[in-house]
Amino acid sequence: DGGDSFRIESAEKADRGTEIHITLKAEMDEYTQAHKLRQVIKKHSDYVGFPIYIDGEQANEQESLWRKKPSDVEDEAYQKFYQMMTFDFMPPLKTIHFSTDMPVNLRSLLFIPSKREANPMALRKEPGVKLYSNNVLIKEYCTDLLPDWLAFVDGVVDSEDLPLNVSRETVHNNRLMRQLAKVVRKRVLREIRKMSEKEEETFEKFWAEYGRILKEGFAVDPAAKDELEPLLHYISSKSDGKLITLKTYVERMPEDQASIYYVLGDDISSVKNSPHLDPFKAKDWEVLYFVEPIDAFMVSQWTETQGKPLVNVAGAEIELPEDEEEDSAEESTLSEAAINLFIGRCVKLLGERVTEVKLSKVLKDSPVRLIAPEEGAAPSGYDRIQRLMNQDYEVPKRIMEVNKNHPIIVNLSEKLEAAGDDAASEIVDLTIEQLYESALIQEGLHPNPAAMIPRIQKLLEIATKA
Which domain does 136 fall in, by range? Predict the structure, then answer.
């Protein structure tokens, strides 16, 4: 009658074996069709250890690749299995094949796809690995074995310890599942770490695709920080465009450097020219480039690593050991009256857009820089996050530091001194405005850089007058 009960009775039978007779409900007649039975067997019992026949033909694969020894499997077999499972014809970046019997029985074959975005033709449309119990599929998309920040990993996990009768809906409540998850997660992270140490080219491809996802895991999963921190990689001012770890950075620090320094920006080209790097270039100290939106979010709560403070080079509190030779070489030819006139003009022109205009103690090659005031400032990177998220963004007030030795500042100051403080000077005012807004762009804080175009064109007009 198609109910959920059954009975066992004695029967006369000439040959060995068991026969199971099933009565289907009327609306389930599709399961009498051979093609439907093949679909079910292919999905749930393709790798059971005995053949299954339909109309005299074997319907299951029977041999599971993940139960073989890795040394017995050719790369071509891995590739064929991956393509069959995912319909992704690009080779995976990494194949992870392992087995263990302690603390749980586990056979696993995992893949890291070459691209983060799935092929539109991909067979697997959701995150999660295939979960098997002794070659019988328990769950097609199991998301309980890996955290969200490793959801890009695909493949198969098989455990004989997992009972066949476990409910597919309540797999995540199983104590054994937590043990399996711990083993799988640990192994995947180990393989990624090994890739970063021994396969530089492959890891660079991996980081380009999945680095942001690991950073998101670091930012939102406090329990994962210790696991993920060794995997974080950044380009720096001394890495020649190569990725380095925080550990490598610390190993290269000079003895008189006590902190790890970073600069925030929108891209590598902009941070390379950041005025905040001036004193670090002069001292030949390395600075990490934080150029992804998630980096700004991370540093709002990430203040220490490798036992050392993590410091934004744009901070007002930056104090570096002074070099006597540098001090003597930086004597300015500009009169105090002239530079004071220029600072006063900046204060008058910029008004409430700045909290203060003052001489810089650190600038070398840049005319100005903007720094956050020490009191009442938002956490490092917060203003950049707010601009990126468009949450009622207003340009934050900053301190503008001026380099009195820079040719632009010297020229403007001398013009003001020659003409007098009250004299109108279009070129001075336009240049001050441009210096300020250029600094906003370098900080990633300008809401609309295109608005500068009329001013730039006016400056070009003045500069090209005969």
Answer: 65-198
